[in-house]
Design brief:
Layout (H helix, E strand, L loop, with lengths): L1 E6 L3 H11 L5 E7 L2 H11 L3 E5 L7 H11 L4 E6 L4 H9 L4 E4 L4 H12 L4 E2 L1 H10 L6 H10 L5 H8 L3 H15 L4 H10 L4
Amino acid sequence: MIRVLLADDEHLIRGALAALLALEDDITVAAEAGSGEEALAMARAHRPHVAVLDLQMPGPDGVTVAAQLRDTVPECRSMIVTSHARPGALTQALGAGVRAFVPKTVSAQRLAEIIRTVHEGGRYVDPELAADAIAAGESPLTAREAKLLSLAADGAPVAEIAKRAALSQGTVRNYLSAAAAKLGAENRHVAVRIARERGWL
């Protein structure tokens, strides 16, 4: 029996998925979670074989949860389901050890098949999501530039970003200017938007 953890903050979707997967003879929903933190706690408590994680949920997102599960519950294989995937999210997910990347438009029967594939050690990436990721290309941003752009995403002033990153304001300005230049953006706010649209943040 394949033990599955379902993590999605949308109760209706999670409940529907749980009900549909319960119809499968070889799959049981061992635990459900509504946030990234809850997913990690449930995975440690129930030791599922496969974690079906929503890409965007409160607390750590699905990719971050997958990366942590790889370290803390290594026998659990992770897969991401999403309704709005940014192209770069696929690259991040694969880097975090995610075994499958699936749109929420997939049928319950197909989802069950993908869960079996992941449980057996296989991989599955939705072809359309893969094509989008290839079209978006690799991020031109360095890890430091991406981190500082992320810190700038909520509109924080340079002084606040510098404090959070433990860097000087001048250094922060230089990194943000370099990131904006690479993305062809006139300022850091536009750079954040472009990087998010391409899935690089």
